[in-house]
């Protein structure tokens, strides 16, 4: 999951829906959870449900961007600041592992407490819903997130193979632009895990990626002030 930097509130809002353009301007048109790029149908997502915490209904620091699938699964489930790993506060790229086939899971190398928090966020938005999972983890018919992750994984692998044959500045730029257009930041970062230059290009291409989650070689580091 892409760690994001939302920045300070650019305005105050009479309705939370009014924040959508500012959020897109800061984070671009990606779901903050599943990482799909959606030209339309992104919504202001309340990390702490507005129905359970009306004081933060118009609070910029409670906003992310959510797609219909992630929002639907998340619903009105209660959340809090400490029991989950959040993309605007933690280095979520360290918390989750993306695998071929559209699979997402908590990083098994994390300490148990952090792994449990990562698993809670996966469950919160249903990132592990997949046709190959047990019955209780099956996606709804209209939930194509895992299929799209798998398609982008295969695309990224093809581009990695092509880069081995065309390793030049223009091709590297084109691959980064493709990742920007397709979304699924963590898939691209996983497939190109041993190419620091491409990891840098992906992080720079996707507006709103938190730069303080990487070292000089674009390896993941703990986020200042975060849990991970």
The ordered string of helix (H) and strand (E) elements is HEEHHEEHHHHH
What characteristic shape results from the CA principal axes? globular
Number of helices: 8
What percentage of amino acids are in beta strands?
5-15%
Mean pLDDT comes to 95
Rg, rounded, reads 17 Å
Secondary-structure-derived class: mainly alpha
The order of strands across the largest sheet is 1-2
Q: Indicate the low-confidence ranges by residue numbers.
A: none
Binned, the helix content reads 25-40%
Major sheet details: 2 strands, antiparallel
Distance between the termini: 13 Å
The tally of strands reads: 4
Describe this structure in words.
With 228 residues, the protein is mainly α. The chain has 8 helices and 4 strands. The strands form 2 sheets. The protein has a two-stranded antiparallel ribbon. A two-stranded antiparallel ribbon has the order 3-4. The protein starts with 19 loop residues before the first helix and ends in a 23-residue tail after the last helix.
